[in-house]
Structure formats: C-alpha cells, structure tokens
Amino acid sequence: GILIDQDTRRVEGETVDFMGFPARTPVAPAVLAVRLGAPVVPLHIRRLEDGTYLLDIEEPMYFSKDDSTLEILSALNGRIEEWIREDPCQWVWFHRRWKTPGKAATSPS
Fold this sequence. Notes:
Number of strands: 4
Strand order of the largest sheet: 1-2
Helix content: 10-25%
Order of helices and strands: EEHEEH
Largest sheet: 2 strands, antiparallel
Strand content: 15-25%
C-alpha cells in the first residue's frame, strides 16, 4: 500500500490540486501503474458508530501509458476528495498536508 495523502520530502512528488489547493503528492502509484500496467486499488477505513472499523476496498482504477503522472495523481487525489466530501467527520490528519509551498501563496488552515 502507498499513502498518497502525505507531504513528505523523502519520496519523489508532484504538486497536484487537492481540495482546491496545490498539494505535493507522491508519484509512486502513478509510476508503478504505468510501468507495470497494474491497477491502483483505492481503499480507506471508516470508523463506525459502534466504534468498530470498516475497510472499504473499491474497484480498481486502470491507467494507460498515455496517462501522465499528473493526470493519474489528479484522479487519485480526486477519489480521496470524494471520500472526504461524503463524510468529513472521518477526515483527520495529524500532519500538515500542505506544508510544501505550491503554486498558490496560501494553504487551507
């Protein structure tokens, strides 16, 4: 598994829109999808009202050699955005998602 909702300088990344702001996003999923012809399988975990968790494994996303890294990362970030918009209470991060300066001078608080 690869967490792409992290802004880390330890791995190669590209700046891609996330929730309306430029966000550095690791390129590994896009590179592997194209290089290996492998699908990306999005998944996330939701906390249920009874305190248990549900792992949502979604349909694979297929990309071709014609898709650019930025196109793939935009699609993947877009899927995470959909999860957040569907249930914002599930979205909690303990790090600064937008710590690397991007194309915009501001980032969300």
